[in-house]
Amino acid sequence: MNTYLVQRLATGFVTLFGVALIVFLIMRVIPGDAAVMMSGAGSGVVSEEELQLVRHRLGIDRPLVVQFVDWAGHIAVLDFGTSLRTGNPVIEDIGRRFPYTLQIVVLAMIIAVSVGVPAGVFSAWFADTWIDRTLQTVTIIGLAAPSFWVGLLIILGLVFFFNWSAPLFWEPFWISPLKSMSQLIWPALAVGLRQLALIARMTRSIMREVLGEDYIRTARAKGLSERRVVFRHALWNGALPIITLIGFEIAALFGGLIITETVFSVPGLGQYVVTSILDRDYPAAQGIVLVLAAIVVLGNLTVDLLYGLLDPRTRLQRGARA
Amino acid sequence: MTDIIPNAAAAGARAGFHPAVALTQPGRVRRLLGLVRRQPLGALGAIVIIVMALAAIFAPYIAPFDPTVGDPASLYQSPNATYWLGTDGFGRDILSRLIYGARVSLVIGFGASLLGVIVGTVIGITSGYIGGWFDTISQRVVDAMLAFPMLLLALALAAVLGSSVRNVIVALAMPIVPRAARIARASTIVLKSTTFIEASRAIGCSNLRTIVHHILPNTFAPLLVIATAYLGLAIVQEAALDYLGAGIQEPQPSWGLMMSGSATSLALVAPWIVLFPGLAISLVVLASNLLGDAIRDVLDPKLQRTSV
Amino acid sequence: MNANGGIDFFPISRRTVLKTGAGSLAAAVALPSMSWAQTPKRGGTLLLSNGGDPPTLDMHQSATYLTEFVGSPCYSTLLRIDPTDINKLVPDLAEKYEVSSDGKSVTFHLHANVEFHNGMPFTADDVVFSLNRIRNPPSGIVSPRKGLLGNVKDVEAKDARTVVVHLNAPQADFPFQVANPYNVIVPRKVVEPLDTSGQGMKRTIVGSGPFKLSQAIDGQLYELVRNEKYFGQKAYLDKIQMFPIKGEAERAAALQSGRIHGCFFFANESVLAGLRNLPNITTLRRPTPTFINLIPNITMKPFDDIRVRQALSLAIDRQAFIKTVGPLAGAFYHSTGLLTPGSPYNLSNEDMKQFAGYDTLPDVGGNIEANRKRAIELLEQVDVPKGFKIVLLARGDIPAFRDSSINIAAQLKMIGLDATVDVRDAGGFYAAETGGQFQCVAHSVAVSGSLPDQLLGEGYTSFGGRNYGNWKDDSLDEAFRAQSREVDPAKRKQLIKDFQVKFLKTYYQINLAWVGYGAAHSKSLKGWNALTDLYANMQMDRVWLDA
User: Residue B259, Cβ neighbours under 10 Å: how many?
Assistant: First the structure.
């Protein structure tokens, strides 16, 4: 078990290094380097000499390898540098914005699981009835709808029916938790809908499979009530794939999150990374992408470990991983 | 998902199902109709996509108005007899923009999905077949790319490459490459150990021949499933890019662009502007998901469905 | 005049030039002056919306209203534009000033007992530092308004309360250069070390203005509180809170629902129109020194040939341009000349007839078909083939740039050119522009003021900082300097007219329309009036909230 953990951690680090390299290269290749943006080119022609001075001050005129090593070295001690746009340390900006993003993710997952699992169970229990068919249709539509469109529709509905307007100031959770929840529930709903549909469908299919398995028949034969059969045995064994799904879906969740934050103007990481890329804010963009990738890698790692812990079958298979 | 695909490949190989063979044999029309009857949803999906593609191709003949020219006298009109889906803030007909927008979405969606799958397949098969250090390195690169949220990778690349259709296709294909590579590699590894391949090598077929004749046809099926699954995803990502302003720019209409701008004011004035493009996207994604599911069902009904 | 009839405001029609030796200005005013029926009330928090996050809080380095709206209340300048009259100056940090008899020295007498927000005393040394920082920025610091102080030879502090500025040549407009809202006085002891480290005043504001910066949260809030130690009349408001809201419609919605008191920047007409009829909201739009020019890259063939540039100018119907781009970007205004609409220095309608393409301005009486025919002939003369590809570089996130380019491309197609628009995001746009990698660009140029030295100096000289097209013409630059140092008002007026004629004849930049920005505020916001300038009168020290 320990060697497995170490091995997976090592792989994780290598992956992160690869991510760092990729994002670094991309940001450097983007036309319109930070110097042009920073020099207020919008206010007039900036001479090449002035630009060179700004580049030198920012340190972006050094050879790429030097810049990368310098940056990577700082990252290793968790110094993400200073945002070229805000002038704050990137860590500070990330720290201030991370809670909003985290809240949305958590809320979205809570919604997805607490509605999706029962819906899936329901669907499996009443398989092939009109209940099942309705839920199937609803979920398959939920999968197809782009999350930012759902977000736009939610805004439309809120404004039209409830005279809602976007918050001017997004309350941090530790200052006013209820207000902050009430503000963030809407973007969470937009992001979580797709996860909800996925979980519902997966739950249904797993439950159907499991309900047909031998040990369920045994439980029924033993005379256990249907409900006990379903909830005790089936759901427990179906939990694992659901957890796996959640783990692997984290990357997809972030994708939807990024654009949904922009739709709702939430001052979270998603909005920050979009602005950073468009503004050529290298340290910020690189830093956030690394953080997001780290979360994804961690998520996968956690799922792998959970799998290893909870399902004895996979422990045996571990050696044969492709 | 990765462990399902080798089964599909092996199943396909066992069943002798070779799509190329199936389509060229006589009685193919009857076979096709048989497929449709067994998979009505998938057929529906295929039809929707085909209809949209046709509409996009024949846009100049179908669209009632020029999508880029607005009539200043008819701003924000709700759907009526002249403008079936209403007009936007510049007086442009929404239906026409929707039809022309289909071009952008479908071309980029198909292009990105296809490009991503092809490049990914090449990498994956090579990786799985050769093995060794090439495999290890390429797998780490694939891992790194997979850790990127898809939209971020596309966004960064679109910013690098610029906003032309061709560049957006490349930008959107990028996130698909590692996913397709994973799957192609997994199935290659499984197939490598089957008797077909051993036999082929034994009689002296070159590597390339082995790949083309034996591995490729049997990975074709799962990759087709992936391609349709990612078609939907590519279209959504493309719309997202446009919405953010990093993709296709005005005056070229695109579904994502149509939805950008202020949702708050549109909510009160003209909700249809946001409603219809998203509906179009959802429809295409739904169709491609259904098609993907149907293809998978045809290959091996015991597999989990695409949408799960 | 606004085609939509939406103008609430008309610029000054006459002004008298400052006389040498005088200590203050005289001017003819046509503006309504504000008189208060009520006594201003103290207290309250003003809630405003800005158009987004300021890219920097450093006033010297910025040229965007995003920075200026946040910074202006916190800083002081030597002199300041009269809040009720854009042609007048009132004292700020300088109690009074004198111009020497030869016009080459200006002496400023500074206020006593002024403190910066951090308690440091204000002295002449800070003035010297600030002015030098603007005209001769240290390495790594950019200064868009360098040219405004281009005539300054040196700045010296005679004593702690006196500063003498020596000019190379007399300059009638000089005091206005110093009164530009961006040319604020900063404390040397705070800024100098920051400049050395490269930060500049990006994140901090230490000024001497009526408000102090208390919070700056990127993406959320910028908060200013009243400076109780202000050297002038203390502000009425306790606090100002500014929320960055990118979408214009969102700002309008926030205003409409009463969650903010005002927003001083709107470009889009339909958003503004939505606010116009609301009973409790005052809406206005006024012309500002922002103009839209089509700028060909002179260093790229065939734009080095004047006939090609003339053809470009002939192809574009100014009225059609205004009609389409107006509602999208606020480009409702036009001017017969290079100066702001209504400026006394402008040329006459008759005069404009001699410049190719400018006869399509309203009331000049041109014929666009005839113009376009002539354009085609000119292109043939120069061997520019039909279907010649022209790519217009445009910036996607600002309507004034993007929509202008789209319209221009459509009009250029009418003379047989295959004109397309290359829309890029801000970063890509500036990369191409500063690298000279473009054929033509339609640029919305916002200069720092409407006076000839400011407007012509910035926008129409090769050194002014807006020479995107890379032209070089010493005779034009010299013509500019000649008018700048002319002290006789009548002679100067003629020199300014001559300059305009000279420039218009070169077609280095083809002027299309002028932009005016809208503002809207709740009627409970009192004490603010709009000038024909986006940046002036934003210190908010005379603003108060009623109820």
Answer: 25
